[in-house]
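Annex B. Sample input.
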Amino acid sequence: MANVTSYERPRRGILEGVLSSLRPPLRPSGSLMDLKPQLGVKEEIPVDQLYQALLNAEHRNDIDRINPWIQNKQGSSAWGPVQILKDTMEEARRVGNLTPEESDYVDRYKADQQTVDPNDKVLYTSIAKKLLQYYMYKYRDPLRVANAWRWGERGSAPSTQYFGKDKDGNRMYGLEKDISKPGSLGSDPDYWEEFRKVMGL
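Annex B, continued. Sample output.
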């Protein structure tokens, strides 16, 4: 079995049957942080909820939600439940404190060796959640996390944020893409609507 940070079920109280439907089924444990209300949201937002919100936003029809282990239909390298790009996988290695097995999975993923092997599914999910944890800690805003996931960090950044120079020596700045603003660059109302439903925004 994959060597990843474990997720454990929350402890049950006396009203186990009644309250079980009110709690998220899985909670981060181990090295993953609990995302508390001080992050600017009304309720605690575990990384599992962010993952589910992105899954629903990326896969908006019931057939894809039943089996989300698919390639992006628009021809990008994105794959799986939260449609991770190859570059996003490399970003996860840079910031995600990955285990050796997870790091090996990143190499295989980037070499187009995505599989639906149960062990690989565990690794994919663990890596995605570690990166989501990093984004939430960095941005402290679920909408900014969704924009970074959808458009990349530069795509979602303000136009005043400098990103160095491109290969031709041109200065690069944030593109301010925002899924939540109709008519703006990066607007994606359907993606935003699905993300909002799960997050309760």
